[in-house]
Amino acid sequence: MLQRPTSFATEVLRYGLIVLVLAFIVFPILWMVVTSFKPPQDVMVSPPRFLFTPTLDNYVHAIWEKNFLFYIKNTLFISVTSTVLVVVAGALAAYSFARYNVGDGHILFFILSTKMFPAIAVILPYFLIFRDTGKTAVGRFLGVGLDQPGALIISYTMFNLPFAIWLLVSFFQDIPRELEHSARLDGLSRMKVLRKVVFPLAAPGIAVTGVFTLIFCWNEFLFAYILTRKTASTITVGVESFFTLQGILWGPVAAAATISVLPMMAFVLLMQRYMVRGLTFGAVRG
């Protein structure tokens, strides 16, 4: 039976809805970027001014006067380190759950249950732990006290590890066991099978896990706000510093937010094809 061609009106309605959804999603970002180039007298006016003389004063204020690159450096180091730890530990743990059924599913469910805790419920214990740890010689050496990068790295790793394990288990389960058996018969050790066979096949899932983990670490505010003061503050805390007693510096805030968003947008666009492969991995089976 031949499929009836889609009418022109249906196509117009479909693409119209797509345009409306995209406009709803993209408009706040465009407004933020436009505001970052507005002079102070054109920011908080009604009706909004779309014709104005662009200026870079907001970026100069954010970068030089507020030293926003310092927050970017801290965020980059903490986020990348935590993401690497989460991906490595999560991949090894997920593989053991997928292949050996460690704990007969009970441990895996317990790991998932830790993700159900809201961040506000664990922030006080984390604060007390890192406060006391930072007073010890080992804690100061490892940098795991308050207002030190290690505190955020450990917090982000512990908070994202359950999500990474549960996400990666399904990817490892979709890899045929016969491939591993064949590699073992060819003389490869268990670690070489993981490195040369399993992990390359699960690369799309690992990439997706890394992207989501990095985005969470980059955008997280509560842990960064409570566990840091100045030395290890991240971009979310840095943006909050533009809320002064004299009022909110909307232009510099928009400039700082634009600087904060650009690295993640570039990273997601770079990893887009891996994310599509990872999200569709195992969706179609022969």
TrEMBL record:
The keyword Cell membrane applies. One of its GO terms (biological process) is transmembrane transport. Keywords: Cell membrane, Membrane, Transmembrane, Transmembrane helix, Transport. It comes from the Bacteria. It is a multi-pass membrane protein. GO terms for cellular component: plasma membrane. Residues 72-271 form the ABC transmembrane type-1 domain. It holds the Pfam family BPD_transp_1. The keyword Transmembrane helix applies. The chain crosses the membrane at residues 12-34, 76-95, 107-130, 150-172, 197-227, 247-270. Belongs to the binding-protein-dependent transport system permease family. This is ABC transporter permease. It comes from Manganibacter manganicus. The lineage of its organism: Bacteria, Pseudomonadati, Pseudomonadota, Alphaproteobacteria, Hyphomicrobiales.
